[in-house]
Structures are given as structure tokens and as C-alpha cells.
Design brief:
Length: 69
């Protein structure tokens, strides 16, 4: 959505774009959304939301992120 900081939203979308290309879990999630007929930016928004949850969990648990295969 267009609520909140536009700078933070842009940073999240940029991170989601890179993550959807290099992280296997987020790449599969992005491709699932695209196969459902979602537009590129809509699917990227879903990836950025999922990335927010991952970032919050990392900060809350104070653990390093490990890419799952």
C-alpha cells in the first residue's frame, strides 16, 4: 500500500527484488504468486511483506539468517 514511509517502502521493494532472485524460498514464493496470475509488482509486494516478517523474526530472536534449501 502507499501508507508509511516511501523511503522505507522503496528499500523494502529493492530488497524484495534481490531476494526474489537469489533466495530459493522467496523465489519459489514469488513464482507461486506469478503463477496465480498476480502482476509483477503485486507479487513483489507479497515478497516484501514476507521479508518484513523474516527481518522482524531475525531481530526478535537475535539470530543470523540462514538460507533454507
Amino acid at each position: 500500500s502507499k501508507r508509511g514511509s516511501p523511503y522505507l517502502r522503496k528499500a523494502l521493494f529493492s530488497a524484495a527484488l534481490v531476494a526474489s532472485q537469489h533466495d530459493p524460498v522467496l523465489k519459489a514464493f514469488y513464482e507461486k504468486k506469478r503463477s496465480e496470475g498476480k502482476h509483477h509488482l503485486t507479487a513483489l509486494g507479497a515478497v516484501s511483506r514476507k521479508l518484513c516478517y523474516i527481518i522482524f523474526a531475525i531481530l526478535k530472536k537475535n539470530e543470523a539468517y540462514e538460507i533454507r534449501q
